[in-house]
Amino acid sequence: MSLGNLERELPALASQATPGREIDWEVVEEGLGTGLPGDFRQLCERYQYLVLDRFLSVHVVAPGEQSTYTASVWHDIGSLGILAGPDARHPHVPYVAGTTGGLIPWASSVEGDVWYWRVAGADPDRWPVVVGNRNDDCEDWAEFPTSATAYLVGLIRGEIPGHGLPEGFPARAPEVHADTWPTF
């Protein structure tokens, strides 16, 4: 799936695009020690934000703020490291630069849920999505062999289960904010 599929699923999204958002992906890649999936990069180059139903917020990279973005990602990875513990009691471990298997966050909810990519090899476009439950109950975490945009499309269509997310999220026609930050 691609960003185009997400735009077709969310008709209000395309009208909120901000074309010409130039992201220095080299800075992001150097800061994280890896590239990021193409659909996510396209989303960042087209939208200032992506918030669904005032609940799920994609961590969009802002032009000129690439170092701030990578610092934020490393902070969230550190939080997962605390959850996993020093002897990796939690089955979902944080990303470590230059390795595979760890998690990199790409979205979060107002209730503390976190969406990650599992670094499953050298090709970021093949990384699965992992949904981390806000209750930190690792048994409620779920992995989906799909891209971030395909996951969002499947979630909106009801084809991907919400695994620990609030009942009714997302709505079948979710409220979309991509050019202004919603009030909560």
Structure description:
By secondary structure, the protein is an alpha+beta fold. The protein contains six helices and seven strands. It has helices at about 5-10, 10-15, 25-30, 40-45, 65-85, 150-155, and strands at about 50, 55-60, 105-110, 115-120, 130, 140-145, 175. Strands 6-5-4-3-2-1-7 form a seven-stranded antiparallel β-sheet, with helices on one face. β1 and β2 form a beta hairpin. α1 runs parallel beside α6 and α3 runs parallel beside α5 (about 65-85). The longest helix has 19 residues, at about 65-85. The two termini are about 30 Å apart. The relative contact order is 0.19.
Task: Name a few traits of the molecule.
7-stranded antiparallel beta sheet, globular, single chain, 6 helices, alpha+beta
Précis, in short:
This protein is of the alpha+beta class and 184 residues long.
Number of helices: 6
Q: Share of helix among residues?
A: 25-40%
Q: Pairing-aware structural class of the strands and helices?
A: alpha+beta
Low-confidence runs: none
Q: Count the strands? A: 7
Summarize the topology.
Layout: H1 3-9, H2 11-14, H3 25-32, H4 38-46, E1 51-52, E2 56-58, H5 66-84, E3 103-109, E4 114-118, E5 129-132, E6 142-144, H6 148-157, E7 176-177
Antiparallel strand pairs: 1-2, 1-7, 2-3, 3-4, 4-5, 5-6
